[in-house]
Structures are given as structure tokens and as C-alpha cells.
Design brief:
Layout: H1 10-24, H2 37-40, H3 50-67, H4 72-112, H5 119-122, H6 132-138, H7 141-149, H8 154-157, H9 160-170, H10 173-179, H11 186-201, H12 205-214, H13 218-235, H14 251-278, H15 289-304, H16 310-324, H17 329-347
Helix pairs in contact: 1-3, 3-4, 3-14, 3-15, 4-6, 4-9, 4-13, 4-14, 11-13, 14-15, 15-16, 15-17, 16-17
């Protein structure tokens, strides 16, 4: 997963959980939010993976348990909404590339109108303006439709962030090297845009803070969206229309969101005795809240998701614990889940089918 220094911080992630609980549990859902599934289905690649789905579910379970909220339907709606909003972040980050190019072109046109215009002003280097990949994004029907259907006019209303990115780009060695490149090809244009995104846009802290203010759940989504954008840009071919990527890999992944959340919440109480037996040296209140939730989610997968292999489930929750819980949590969770899974196998409780048998 592509990360920047701003994103790769467990403290941020833990703080998000607190804010998620405070700000989002029980919030009203914006019913006008539109996702263009028809457009997304044209793409062969997708953004959200099973691990990020598990993270999103963990956050919603955490919020419900700590708020002592029993409105499962309302929290499920918020969970789905927060995932759908990742597409907004994806589109905004693509669109800012286009808006930076638009600003650059505007400045070139103004320079031509100077009273004492120089030779460089009159015949400027237009390599950035002519960038083939950026122009493909600009002409994208799916991007333009998404922006208008969802009323994402951020870079018109908050154009200072476009200026911030443009100024940083203009002063960068990356930009100077690109303008001085004599060869002109789609491959070179694409390589520049990918580096522009990875080196200038993705690490920009002011932009990250802006997104955090817009929607708190985007704090955790940024690394995944960055990866999605780099994949989108990398897969683009010359002379092909630019099409937005899909949110989910398939219907199974989309259903996994609700199924994991609801089944965890509906069955989590009966897992507590099982966990207590496997942790005799630990009082319930000594187990970190996040650890307890991750263990309950894993047990849910053991029992109610027959096609998911046990080892996949354990590995996924170990990795999530490394980012979201204490330093030793991953070892603790691994030990507990290993004991529980082996007991389930021995007494026939575990019933896996298909790839779940691997």
C-alpha cells in the first residue's frame, strides 16, 4: 500500500477511532449522495480491499459498543456511506491534477498579455499543458459525470489548495526536469504525472488537513485512495478514454461489508466466554478494546464465513492490530485466535468449504 509520511502514523489512526465515536455514531446520512455504479463497472480495477473493509467494520463496531448504541441499521448505513465517500476522495485527488494544469495554462495566457512580455512569455514551454495523460483525465466523461452528479466543486470553492499544489510543483526539480525533456511521448507524460502525484500531491500536509476537515473518516482512507490513484494512472493506455476505477472488486466484497458488521454485532456477546477461557491470566477489562473487537470479528469469520481460510483471517487481524492497537497486540491476538481456531477444528465447530479449506 502506497503511504506518505503524513499517513503512516498509528497515533493518527487511534485518534480517528475516538473522533469516529464522538462525531459520527448516529449522524444523519446524506441521502443525496450518488455513486455511479454503471461508470465504475467499466473499469477492471478497484479500490477497497478486504483489509480496509475490516478496518471500516472495526471502527463501526467500536463506535456502537462504546456509545452503547443499539441502532444497527443506522450504524450500518453510516458504515456504507463512509466507504462510498472514499470515491469522492479518489475523484477529488484526480481532479486537482486537472485543476493545477488549468491554473498553469491561465498563468501562461496572462504572461502573454504583459506589456513588456519576454520571448519566453510569448512562446512558453507548454509541455505540462500538453500532457497527454492529464488531458485524457480532463476529457473523461466518467470523471466529469461523477463531479456533477455528486456536486464536487471543491476546487472552484477552495482554489487556494490548487495554488498550493501548483506552487510546489513549479518550484520542484521534478517539474523542471520534465519541461527540459526533449522527447515527447505518452510514456514520459504518464511517468511525470505519477511522480507528480506521489511526490507533490500525496504528501502535502495542508491538503491532508483539508480532507480531514471535510470528512474525518478520510484520515484512514488516504493511503488506500493514493494506492488506487497510482494504479489508475499506471494502467492508463495511450489514446484510450480515461475511466474511473471501481469501488469494490465484486458483489461479494460489497456484501462482505454488511455481513461482517451485522454478524459481529449480533453474535459478539456469546464470544466473550470463549475468549475468557483462552485468556485465563487476563481480566476482561485488561484486554484492549480494539483487541477484543478484532478477536470477535475474527471468530465471526471463523464461524460464519465458510469460504475464508482460517489462516487468512488470522493474518488479516494481526496486521490490523499492528496499525491500530498496542505494540504487543498482534502477538496476543495471534495466540488467542490460534487456540480458538484449533479447538473449533478439533470439535467440528469450524466448517469451511471451497477455498476456505486452504
Amino acid at each position: 500500500m502506497f503511504k506518505t509520511k503524513h499517513e503512516d502514523t498509528s497515533l493518527k489512526k487511534k485518534n480517528f477511532l475516538k473522533k469516529h465515536l464522538k462525531n459520527n455514531c448516529g449522524n444523519q446520512i446524506n441521502s443525496t449522495f450518488v455513486v455511479q455504479k454503471k461508470l465504475a463497472n467499466l473499469s477492471s480495477f478497484y479500490m477497497i480491499n478486504r483489509r480496509h473493509i475490516r478496518v471500516k467494520v472495526m471502527q463501526s463496531v467500536y463506535a456502537m459498543l462504546h456509545a452503547k448504541n443499539d441502532d444497527l441499521i443506522k450504524e450500518e448505513k453510516f458504515l456504507k456511506h463512509s466507504i462510498l465517500k472514499m470515491a469522492d476522495l479518489y475523484v477529488l485527488n484526480l481532479h486537482i491534477i486537472v485543476q493545477v494544469q488549468k491554473l498553469a495554462n491561465k498563468k501562461l495566457e496572462l504572461s502573454k498579455k504583459k506589456i513588456l512580455a519576454t520571448k519566453e512569455d510569448l512562446k512558453p514551454n507548454t509541455k505540462f499543458i500538453d500532457n497527454k495523460l492529464i488531458n485524457a483525465i480532463k476529457e473523461s466523461v466518467s470523471l466529469d459525470s461523477y463531479l456533477h452528479l455528486n456536486k464536487l466543486f471543491n476546487w472552484n470553492d477552495d482554489d487556494e489548495y490548487v495554488k498550493i499544489i501548483f506552487d510546489e510543483l513549479q518550484n520542484s526539480n521534478l517539474y523542471k526536469r520534465y519541461l527540459n525533456t526533449t522527447e515527447s511521448s505518452f510514456k514520459i507524460d504518464k511517468s511525470f504525472v505519477i511522480d507528480f502525484y506521489k511526490e507533490i500531491i500525496a504528501p502535502n500536509e495542508k491538503l491532508a488537513e483539508y480532507y480531514e476537515d471535510k470528512m474525518i473518516s478520510w484520515v484512514d482512507d488516504i493511503p488506500f485512495v493514493n494506492t488506487w490513484i497510482v494504479k489508475t494512472l499506471s494502467k492508463q493506455k495511450a489514446n484510450k478514454p480515461f475511466v474511473l476505477g471501481s469501488l469494490y472488486k465484486d458483489k461479494d466484497d460489497e456484501d462482505f461489508v454488511s455481513d461482517l458488521f451485522k454478524k459481529t454485532m449480533l453474535h459478539q456477546h456469546k464470544f466473550e466466554d470463549e475468549i475468557a477461557i483462552k485468556t485465563p491470566n487476563w481480566e476482561k477489562d485488561r484486554i484492549a478494546d480494539i483487541d477484543m473487537i478484532l478477536i470477535k470479528m475474527a471468530i465471526t469469520e471463523f464461524l460464519y464465513f465458510p469460504s475464508i481460510p482460517v489462516r487468512v483471517t488470522i493474518n488479516e487481524y494481526i496486521e490490523i492490530a499492528k496499525d491500530y492497537s498496542t505494540q504487543k497486540s498482534s502477538y496476543f491476538i495471534n495466540g488467542v485466535l490460534d487456540k480458538i481456531s484449533k479447538e473449533f477444528m478439533a470439535n467440528g465447530t469450524l466448517k469451511k468449504i471451497g477455498r476456505g479449506l486452504l
